[in-house]
Amino acid sequence: MTRRTAASRVLDVLGAFGPDHRALSLSEIARRAELSLSTTHRLVGELLSWGGLERGADGRFSVGLRLLELSALAPRGLGLREVAFPHLDDLHRATGGNVHLGVRDGHEVVYVEALRSRGTAQVSSRVGDRWPLHATGTGLVLLAHADPGDVDDVLARPLARYTARTSTDPEALRRHLARVRRDGVAVLRGQITDDAMAVAVPVRDRTGEVTAALSLVVRDDEAGPGGLPALLTAVAARIRRSLTAGPTAMGAGAAVRPVERALRVG
Fold first, then answer.
1. Positive/negative CA dihedral, 221, 115, 154, 18
2. Which residue, of 44, 70, 96, is where some domain finishes?
């Protein structure tokens, strides 16, 4: 068995936490990190002193604010989220749908922002959630713009199925990816949740590279996406301009409102 370095053991402790494991006891951390209780106790103590972990009144541990400060420095993390948020908020208000901003991390999409709806399709989405690339709107957009070798790697792996409509056939997915590249939009129905439709578009940085994906998830009423692709494309363009100009760029409302009016009369 390969001997783990001190740094790798610290990363194992932090890796014990996740969307479904936000607060853990010492023994739970040790079990999930596959470390002895004494080693876990020492590493957790060091992370507490540094601010990487926090201890609650119940004695359980959670991720500390020091890590939040560091993540804010990541160009694809909170920095992107901060610039994009006004535009995402306008999209959320205009549609009432579930809004997601995701970036690719290996074979998964990670949500750096998620605004949940109270009235339309109820989907499980929180900041930090990870989903497979093949079954989500944001993931499919990011995969469509990935290197061919990365696409081959993803499609060669077992593809999880969440509903009877989840697409898990590699060749069908390749055809879908080609359509996404051609049309600039992904439309998925019932892939993760039976009654949900996801519409997603790429978000490009100042150089034109796809740095993130924006999606809107609404209830699937069988009527099709209508004006939603144009709406999301307008918001994605506004985010790109804000990434170029910085957070003081003009608000997203000007981009949303013309398409919102079209939706009302369409």
1. negative
2. 70
